[in-house]
Design brief:
Structural class: mainly alpha
Radius of gyration: 21 Å
Helix content: 40-55%
Shape: globular
Number of helices: 9
Order of helices and strands: HHHHHHHHHEEEE
Length: 282
């Protein structure tokens, strides 16, 4: 889902065959970012890098990323020559327009465009999907909270097919659930309890003004994609609980749901969340 959203914004289309292969490469790229070779900390062991295979993987992944992004840029240039000015622009089109005009004083070459697209994918897909997976995990472990969220979303959205931004503004409990999914357990009372209500009773937000809740960082080093990420979080979670009901498979009890973590660039669930999804019946 998050891959499709990023693809639509950046490339103007949902994930096809080539894009799905690109997502696999991105996943390996993010895995490599999370690798901490021992020779990084003990320089005299640097000879080990010739045998651990990391350098070879980095070179292969880098080459594959460059080839895909080069293809994307060239496809957009060909499309520009064929279509009129009335066509919808995606993010790559805007960057290419910026490159052609070059009136801002900033030099934007193809490598810069590739780097920006890569930033969107690497910084947006894994972080967003991981947050959604943890949020859904906690909701399934806490059926009362899940029901409260579903009631709010379904009451606000009603019989509408699509949820829009105006609907999201009214979903205060949804926003509290997302904040609760992103908070640092070291700084809150009852840290192991999933309790979105704590954010209904305070004005604390994650925009960088409250240091007890800074999943996106703050100030100059804050995440530039916070607005986009928030919109994706809220819309994706709202659509899921609006249209579907969820239960654990094979009689698994809520307290038996595995929540162990896997370290890396982001903290994933060690084992993927497996649930039975059924369309909403009422």
């Amino acid at each position: 889902m998050t891959n499709d959203v990023i693809s639509l914004v950046a490339l103007g289309k949902k994930s096809g065959g080539g894009e799905r292969n690109f997502h696999k490469i991105i996943a390996e790229f993010e895995e490599l970012l999370g690798v901490v070779p021992v020779w990084e900390y003990i320089p005299w062991l640097s000879w080990m890098r010739r045998f651990d295979g990391v350098d070879g993987r980095i070179e292969r992944v880098g080459r594959a990323l460059d080839e895909f992004l080069e293809t994307v840029i060239q496809e957009h240039r060909v499309r520009e020559r064929r279509e009129s000015d009335d066509g919808e622009l995606d993010f790559v089109d805007i960057l290419l327009d910026f490159q052609r005009e070059n009136g801002s004083g900033y030099f934007v070459d193809d490598n810069t465009i590739k780097a920006i697209i890569l930033d969107m994918y690497a910084g947006g897909t894994d972080t967003t999907s991981t947050t959604l997976e943890w949020a859904m995990t906690e909701l399934i472990r806490n059926p009362t909270i899940m029901k409260t969220l579903q009631n709010e979303v379904r009451e606000v959205a009603g019989s509408k097919v699509e949820i829009d931004e105006k609907d999201l503004e009214k979903m205060l409990y949804l926003k509290a659930v997302i904040k609760e999914s992103l908070r640092d357990p070291l700084l809150w009372e009852k840290p192991e309890q999933f309790y979105p209500e704590r954010f209904l009773e305070t004005s604390i937000d994650y925009k960088g003004l409250h240091f007890e809740l800074t999943p996106f960082g703050a100030g100059r080093r804050g995440c530039p994609g916070i607005t986009f990420a928030t919109a994706v979080f809220e819309l994706a979670l709202a659509k899921l609980v609006h249209k579907f009901d969820f239960e654990l498979p094979n009689g698994v009890k809520m307290e038996e749901l595995d929540v162990s973590e896997s370290s890396g660039l982001t903290i994933h669930k060690k084992y993927p969340l497996l649930v039975v999804v059924t369309p909403r019946t009422s």
